[in-house]
Amino acid sequence: MKFTCSQQSLSKALNTVSKAVTSRTTIPILKGILLKASSDGTLTLSASDLDLSIEKKIDVNVEEEGSIVVLSKLFSDIIRKLPNEDILIEEKESNNVLIKTASSEFTIVGLAADEFPNISELEGQPETLSFDKEIFKDMVRKTSFAASIDESKGIIVGVLLEIEPDTVNMVALDGFRMAVAREPMKSAESTKIVVAAKILNEINKIVSEAEDEGDIQIMLSNKKAVILVETTKIVIRLLEGEFIKYKDIIPTQNQTKVEVGRAVLLESIERASLLAKEGKNNLIKLTIKNNLLTITSRSEEGNVKEEIVMEKTGEDLEIGFNSKYVIDVLKAVSDEQVLMEFNTSTTPCLVKPLIGNTFEYLILPVRIASNY
Amino acid sequence: MKFTCSQQSLSKALNTVSKAVTSRTTIPILKGILLKASSDGTLTLSASDLDLSIEKKIDVNVEEEGSIVVLSKLFSDIIRKLPNEDILIEEKESNNVLIKTASSEFTIVGLAADEFPNISELEGQPETLSFDKEIFKDMVRKTSFAASIDESKGIIVGVLLEIEPDTVNMVALDGFRMAVAREPMKSAESTKIVVAAKILNEINKIVSEAEDEGDIQIMLSNKKAVILVETTKIVIRLLEGEFIKYKDIIPTQNQTKVEVGRAVLLESIERASLLAKEGKNNLIKLTIKNNLLTITSRSEEGNVKEEIVMEKTGEDLEIGFNSKYVIDVLKAVSDEQVLMEFNTSTTPCLVKPLIGNTFEYLILPVRIASNY
């Protein structure tokens, strides 16, 4: 293997594929990036942690075909710190790799390419979806934070991607809150997949770094999906199992409805949570009375009362929350006003836009002592 | 105590004085900030960790004189997160403190002001120096990193500030390298003080945040110094003991002199140190031969050779360094070219500007095995 390429394009490609390299693996070859130079003048870079694999092609000057695995961190650090000029990369004996510019010469230890896991293609004719980049990014951002971060919890570490004839939905939940994002989209077939939230977050970074506007392509099979973002191919293992029937959980009848400014509510709750450290519960109390929303909280260090004018229909109510869950929701959306709907002080609160249903959040309340 | 003030000016003042609050103290009152409202319309904020005390005055509307201590972190967090409007602050019974705006109302637990340590003034007529802000900041930046961070090492955790009739020198060293910065300055008397490097770094932050150009004032006594930065008064405890006679260490005769580009040398050494992890020593070897400076390094992961064209007078030389010490020096200065002077492979290297002596750095070499 022998090729020359520009420092900038190689460094950028390494930044993308290294997102699939995990430092926590015990399998040495998975700390590496596979470099494959082909006679058609392309270098294919691949990395995989078995759940997530990323492959990217760049144009290089190939003098000699071949492939080798280099340590991701060391190789990326070297390439990033080289000046922006042409780099020669050449396989030497014993899997050594020479990296050479006008004034620098590195020889680093590589690994044989044949040990690298095969990033296999999907079989047959997979179903393909097109997704606008901005819509995809926004839906992931609105939902992935609500997935469980506890790996022992099974499928709820994932985000449900539900394709229906006229809409696409993303859903995540962790037992304390649920996030639903919806966008209109025409699809020939209905289908459901579940993808680990942390993988979706990595994909979102790659989508954010993409250079052009336009769509990403998602190809689905039974256990895998392939996502194409420009010249980057991402292969992900889907989570298996039945996702919670989330539509049954969303309350349709609510006694109390509150319309409130999102930014002012977010700031008030952030201030109130400065004194909401009791038992790590971040407990705040919302008192909905007439046209005033009052947020109170207290700890050994003091107490706080925040007042916000709002529009209300229905009954007055007192309800407690873990402030973190409310803050997460108010940060994930950008609407000027939001609608909060309540039934009782022990049933979940629903947060949604004034018009439509592009998002719906459910937040479980925390029981508050009668003397709080 | 009762006063109203603007959120912005209070938040800014808290940001300054809280630099003297240490979270690691076991004395509860030192986690606090003393607020003192006077009938002349000033609020004085004070904080101290006994080694460093900071006092700042701001204009407020005082309705009732008085003073109280509030917890630095909680009070600063609350004030920072309040909207930019007028804030009422009032002492209530049992040392409670009310913080009130149009829509927020906090009551936090305070501490009695009489427990707060007295930030005493200097006695008599202390000697006063004026220091241009930019020069002060630059000299601290050029030297403080070289002081020892090992608190058990005594006076070398400090930076020597040496006032001579025509120059001021700052000097720091840690046994492996030494940094000297010099600037012309007329002074009536010669004097020397030693200030802990970490205190100088905090002072540099305050100087950086100052709003106007101009001078800072330094007033010296035997064991203390007072530094005035605009309306901020900083009182520091000086380190006691004799600083190392640093002038005797600087070599005056050097066999080999190398003139080299600072940025290109810095980048080469940063790249070479990617492979310089052997025994945590960051070992790199510099080979000075004819007009080529070659930097080599190696580890189990591979090896590297960097070449830089330079101008040399004197003998060829091979010498080993801990790359961190060379990188620190090359980052601290901004000259386009620097002069490196060497005697043998076991004596310190001197780094200085091409012309003049506004800085001088000594770096101890590391012995390299003959087969390296």
From TrEMBL, chains A, B:
Residues 132-243 form the DNA polymerase III beta sliding clamp central domain. Its main location: cytoplasm. Gene3D superfamilies: 3.70.10.10, DNA Polymerase III, subunit A, domain 2. Pfam families: DNA_pol3_beta, DNA_pol3_beta_2, DNA_pol3_beta_3. One of its GO terms (biological process) is DNA strand elongation involved in DNA replication. It is found in: Cytoplasm. Residues 1-119 form the DNA polymerase III beta sliding clamp N-terminal domain. CDD domains: beta_clamp. Residues 248-367 form the DNA polymerase III beta sliding clamp C-terminal domain. The keyword Cytoplasm applies. The keyword Repressor does not apply. GO terms for molecular function: 3'-5' exonuclease activity; DNA binding; DNA-directed DNA polymerase activity. Keywords: Cytoplasm, DNA replication, DNA-binding, DNA-directed DNA polymerase, Nucleotidyltransferase, Transferase. It comes from the Bacteria. InterPro entries: DNA_clamp_sf, DNA_polIII_beta, DNA_polIII_beta_C, DNA_polIII_beta_cen, DNA_polIII_beta_N. GO terms for cellular component: cytoplasm; DNA polymerase III complex. Belongs to the beta sliding clamp family. Forms a ring-shaped head-to-tail homodimer around DNA. This is Beta sliding clamp. The gene is dnaN.
